[in-house]
Amino acid sequence: MAPVPPGIRFLASFNRDQWYKAFTFALTFLLYTSFHLSRKPISIVKSELHKNCSHVMRAPTESSSGQQPVLHPELDCSWKPFDRNNYKQLLGAMDYSFLCAYAIGMYLSGIIGERLPIRLYLTVGMLTSGLFTCLFGLGYVYDIHSLGFYVFVQVANGLVQTTGWPSVVTCIGNWFGKGRRGLIMGLWNSHTSVGNILGSLIAGYYVSSNWGLSFIVPGVIIAAMGVICFLFLIEHPNDLKIACAQSSAPSSQKVHKNWNGVNGHKDLYLQYKPGAKTQSWDTELLLGQESIGVCVPVQQQQVVVVKSEAEPSPISFMRALRIPGVVEFSLCLLFAKLVSYTFLFWLPLYITKAAHLDAKKAGDLSTLFDVGGIVGGILAGVISDKMGKRATTCAVMLLLAAPTLYGFSMISQFGLGPTIGMLLVCGGLVNGPYALITTAVSADLGTHKSLKGNARALSTVTAIIDGTGSVGAAVGPLLAGLLSAQGWDQVFYMLMTADFLALLLLLRLVMKEHCSHRKRPGVAVELKEH
């Protein structure tokens, strides 16, 4: 008999539980990649909305010799109303309208999403986000030049895009335990950079010929992914247990689902009524904490309890704030995201001015910051898993980020090699805490033991943390724009101050982790409820 290929042996080593986990990991990765893919086109299309392309033409004369070229500003190819001298403010208004709507909507999104099925909530959000993304592109098709139209589309898109993050984090948190959550979510969080890269490529392909398609194509993609979400997303492993029990019943038997409540508990009973020629039998589910479940036939039973657990009720906003660590990590993320989004909006321009490079080279170099961010997020997850100390991991990276930012402010004195190194290191230290807090930390807090297994709280907790961080994302670029007029040094002083404040906000949690580790070395820290 021929030996089994190593690849087949590797695939056969996975049980059904692992396959479903891998599928959920990949699906949620692609779903949120499409969110960032649809956000990126605006940064690419800005250069097309306002261009220095006034045509130089000669006045029609019999002989053009000796004639001076005549400017025809009415032939300028910028897109109204962004052809004015205040185009920077107008373009900025679109950015801030999206970011502010996103920050405000995030607080509401988690509370709403906690009370609705994640699959349906996320599907509606993706379909409507696709609609508004396409609407922006249709402004080109239908020759729309109203600033109000584009601001409205950005505000609406910012609101509906808040459905994404709480939903996917809740789903991935339901499937993966705390054991290697930092590593898994560090890898999973790279969807942000992947979406940005794909969005840039798609928007860049169409921007010169028809910038409307730079929005329409990503809009269609996220809408299509919304349909895939509706068809295939499995919110929780328990959903498969019920599906397994139902599918194992013979087709000739009728299945009834009854809910009976006793003392706040709801038990799901599956009743199988055999036909005249079919032997009576039922299916009982062997439930495990980490397993999907195994269907086993049970002879001569009419009713079997498939699941018995307290029906979780949504938690209030104030109840979520009382979960230990939520306030500290939320405020820390505000300042960490302020730094990260300032780099996102201003890094290419800073490299152009400081390193005296053209826009294309500056843009290429700025992608190294994202690469460093991916590596930093993965390292932060691995280290925090190994140490069992999320706050300490974030604090150390924030402490190292401050001098790195100061060194980066002197980029004009470096050569190309040191600049590349600084971009990678700075990206890792700036985005590492940001990635860890928005993923593994949010999942840890949303499944805190004080919630007594109420997995529905994860959506609200995630929304509070990321919503607070989004406030910093809106404020950071605004402050950078104001301070850059006084010199780039002022911008970096602001960024270093933000890093220092983020570090201060974590000191109490760091001390708790340190004290708990001394008492129980090697044990992950669980914070006590306030």
The best one-word shape is globular
Radius of gyration using CA atoms only = 27 Å
**Number of helical regions:** 18
Number of strands: 7
Mean pLDDT: 75
Spatial separation of the terminal alpha carbons: 64 Å
Along the chain, the helix and strand elements come as HHHEEHHHHHHHHEEEEEHHHHHHH
> Which structural class do the helices and strands define?
mainly alpha
Give the % helix. 55-70%
Specify the biggest β-sheet: 3 strands, antiparallel
Secondary structure layout:
Blueprint: H1 6-12, H2 16-39, H3 41-49, E1 56-57, E2 70-71, H4 87-114, H5 118-141, H6 147-160, H7 164-175, H8 181-188, H9 191-206, H10 213-232, H11 237-247, E3 254-262, E4 265-273, E5 281-286, E6 294-299, E7 303-310, H12 317-321, H13 326-354, H14 359-387, H15 390-408, H16 416-446, H17 457-483, H18 488-519
Antiparallel strand pairs: 1-2, 3-4, 4-7, 5-6
Helix pairs in contact: 2-7, 2-9, 2-10, 3-9, 4-6, 4-17, 5-6, 5-7, 5-10, 7-17, 8-14, 8-16, 9-10, 13-14, 13-16, 13-17, 13-18, 14-15, 14-16, 15-16, 15-18, 16-17, 17-18
Features:
18 helices; disordered C terminus; single chain; mainly alpha; three-stranded antiparallel β-sheet; 7 strands; 530 residues; two-stranded antiparallel sheet
Overview of the molecule:
Its main location: membrane. Helix content is 65%, strand content 8%. The chain contains 18 helices and 7 strands. It has helices at residues 6-12, 16-39, 41-49, 87-114, 118-141, 147-160, 164-175, 181-188, 191-206, 213-232, 237-247, 317-321, 326-354, 359-387, 390-408, 416-446, 457-483, 488-519, and strands at residues 56-57, 70-71, 254-262, 265-273, 281-286, 294-299, 303-310. A 3-stranded antiparallel β-sheet has the order 3-4-7, covered by helices on one side. It has a two-stranded antiparallel sheet with strand order 1-2. Helix 14 (359-387) crosses helix 16 (416-446), helix 16 runs antiparallel to helix 17 (457-483) and helix 17 packs antiparallel against helix 18. It is globular. The protein starts with 5 loop residues before the first helix and ends in an 11-residue tail after the last helix.
